[in-house]
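Weekly puzzle thread! Below is a chain. First person to post its structure in token form gets bragging rights.
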Amino acid sequence: MASFAEWVRARDANASEAPSSGPPAALRVAARLSEFEVDGATETSKQFNWLVDTLVREEAERASVRRFKFEADQKRALLARLLARYCCRAVVGAECTIARTDGGKPHAYPVPAAAAAAAPNFNFNVSHEGDYVVAATEPRALCGADVCSADHLCRAGPPTRDQLRNLADAFAADEWAAVDAIDDAALRFNAFKVLWSCKEAVVKARGDGIVFDLNRVSFLADDPPGNAPPLRHVAPMGYPFRSALVKFDGVPDRRWRVDVDVLDAAHVASVARGPVAAMKDKAGRFRSTMRDPARGAEDSGAWRAELAEPRPPFIVLTVADLVPPRRRAEYDALCGAPARVTPC
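Winning reply:
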């Protein structure tokens, strides 16, 4: 399957139609809050309100965006919903309605049958914190994504040991002991962010919501000692692993894997992948979209090989990139500038 970059190049060479092979089904995409500028306050901005009212199809999701008090939070919420729709178009090839499980996990419903060949268990997840909003998709495994900056802890530099100890209850005893033993504050904070992000990604993949205790999730490094995450702007300092197996209540479950991507010096993103059977979905709508629900249910060599398949690093998109091609002229008119051509 072509890489996302190859797909973009092919699309740009022939903007009227996508390559026949279609886009890859495992995406890692992001947007930055600092690059999302609109014409004035969100309440009165023509650009912001056009994006909400035109591109967010569900009334409940539109209301959720506007429910936030602070403009930064409104923008993060909108970017998350635009990224979700971008992912659906890229993988499924169509606009999808976004529904949620009782635990709040978003999913496409229904998923067109045409997506079954490339992505029989298509699902996605989104996360936002600090300057980044991220989204990830998976074609077969259950997917959870998280981005962590913990910026509220580091207004004046890395948090102290005492500040982090307030969150020790979210860690297994041996896990926290390893973090707490790191003398350097910056290195300790880096380790904290990776572990916290990975825990959140696992719980979000399952769809438990806030009822699952993070201290029940820990990790077993699955890469050579000292192997740093794929880095962009920072040195490999303090990051405990690039990839890891997941332990529940101290017991390794090799049907699960987490992968870490360091976005910049302040932000760490992680994606968890696991068996479809682990999803929490009382209503059953999300489960009904899975065309291979037994995938990964057993710990097998074939499933481990699937989890070991490489995944791309996150790529940053602009707001214009997230506008569907058929609506881009309208958005261009509001912005007064042409949008960059993208595949979705």
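Puzzle host: Confirmed. Bonus trivia for everyone else. The first helix runs from residue 4 to 13.
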